[in-house]
# Entry
Amino acid sequence: MDKTINQKAWFLVLPVFLVVAFSAVLPLMTVVNYSMQDTFGNNQFFWNGVGWFKELLDPSTDLGGRFLASLGRNLFFSAVILAIEVPLGIVVALSMPREGWSVAACLVILALPLLIPWNVVGTIWQIFGRPDIGLLGYVLNHLGFNYNYVANDVDAWVTVIVMDVWHWTSLVALLCYAGLKSIPDAYYQAAQIDGASRWAVFKAIQLPKMNRVLLIAVLLRFMDSFMIYTEPFVVTGGGPGNSTTFVSIELVKIALGQFDLGKAAALSLAYNLIILIVCWVFYTVMTNAGSERPVKEGAA
Amino acid sequence: MDSIAWMAWTWPTAIFFVLLACTLGMMTWLAIAYPEAERVGVLRIPTTRGDRLFVSLVLAAVIHLVWIGLVGTDPIFALPIGEGVEISSLWLGTVISLLSAVVIFRTV
# Structure
């Protein structure tokens, strides 16, 4: 029997298509266009071919050096915050209560940092860490630590990392908690009958059951930290020197500070490509992680 | 054309996007005319034609960037047109991209 095919519903997508074309596709095409040209302002453009990309990928040039350095800093930052936030989030989720009034209290407290806008988080930590009027900076300096995030690279890094952990560990914890809640009691009862240790329960039941949400958490945290701009910009402004200048901060400096549209366009395309690839890999792994299991079970 | 002059379009980028649009149009027509099922290739993930096109395009971008970074864009020969049109070695990267796209479409 032939199925009735009606494609008229596609017309309902038309408004969204137009909005996306206007707000995303055309601007992206403009970026590609600018990456091949140079401008000295006044809306006059000169053809530069792949010149900016050559500079971008050559560490000996100013643009290439800045891009590769900020990319390295950004990847290091993402690695550090993932290494802290994921285990910490799991620990927090495991130690949260399972029932009673304290569940709601915990959830609200955990959700609070997530609701604060990025620039406010930046401002909070900017003031919190100041040696003269900030609680953290003042106390640390009076305890004998020479802490000053404006002057010392390591202090700036520690501040930015602690700030990100403070802001986003809750997200990992909440995701893990949701994963833990979905484990049926029968698993724990079976473990109890087998006399499984706490560690064995974690390794054999809780961690495997959490792997989907953990994958989502890692993806979200990686993308967010790889694209981070506001918080370090507010706290350190990319300094001291260039030590906390991440790719997006460098990009804004080039595009808006120096008004080098061609260089900035080339940089943003390379940046975009990295994000696109990482997204695709995570998405593919995520959508296929679950589908493999039934096949294996069916074969066994 | 004056109304879009501020966008500073150039022929090479325009041709690039027209080719891209033609590719997408062709894929849409193919999807309607010859519907296909997902299949599992060497990456052991189910892919459709669209997925394979996406992977090919992303890989082409990576190949071009790596080529610019490692090999450069020095001219390899000049076409005997007028005063001689120089052909950049980057076109070799383009050829490699096209070959890899063929491989991806056949095996992934």
